[in-house]
Amino acid sequence: KSPANVTNDLILRRLFEMIVENLDEFVYYPIPKNMEYMRCQLTRDNQGLDKYFLPTYYLHAERNDGKKYLILTARCKLRKYGTASYVLATDITNTLKDEEPFIGKFRGNNMQDSEFVVYDNGVNPKHIKNNQEQLRRRRRQMAATIYETKLLGLKGSRKMTVLIPNMTENDQRIEVQPQNEKEGLIERWKHSEMNNILELHSIITESNSNNLKFNDRQELKESTKNFQIVWTKDSTQGKTSS
């Protein structure tokens, strides 16, 4: 194996140890910069009536030997204030009620469902009333996505922007804990205030099709569900950085 592959295997071994020993710690742990990739699989529960109105998703991490570990579940909640909302948990039973332990939330940021923010399980700033403990536990924004809206019937590659907090030289996440909506990832992006924020984009192919190659995996049929997220500087070169 090349030195890079050996390094990646060592990092993966440690991460899978974290998955087994402390899954809640793992899901918040920033992936080291010198890691090449971790293969994951996202599936949707197609059982029961809820699959249409309140779908549940499962995210598995896959080892090189093919063994899979369930690391996150996401269940759609009834809409509040007109925006989509998902509860994220490391245990499927904890996605049923907001009162039960959960790891975070994936929530719509606008009525058009073209903007979403991933939060941890901290306290909503709106619910903090000069309480020092609550101030310390103010929720973090872990990531955000912005989809480009399209006219009905318009075909082409899915266009999206992904925002994530940057990391320090010691592989520590630079926390984003906004005190109000104006300090969040999406608002900062809209005002070009990108200090300590990484901006990624989906690959746009020359043919603008939805048929993309996924390295050693079988090339999938054309679908709007196929997409690849890369660093901004590589978005037109087809380099899969993430």
TrEMBL record:
Pfam families, per the entry: Tub
UniProt-listed InterPro entries: Tubby-like_C, Tubby_C
GO biological process: protein localization to cilium
Family: Belongs to the TUB family.
Name of the molecule in the record: Tubby C-terminal domain-containing protein
Domain Tubby C-terminal intervals: 30-233
Gene Ontology, cellular component aspect: cilium
Organism of origin: Didymodactylos carnosus
Coiled-coil annotated residue ranges, if any: none
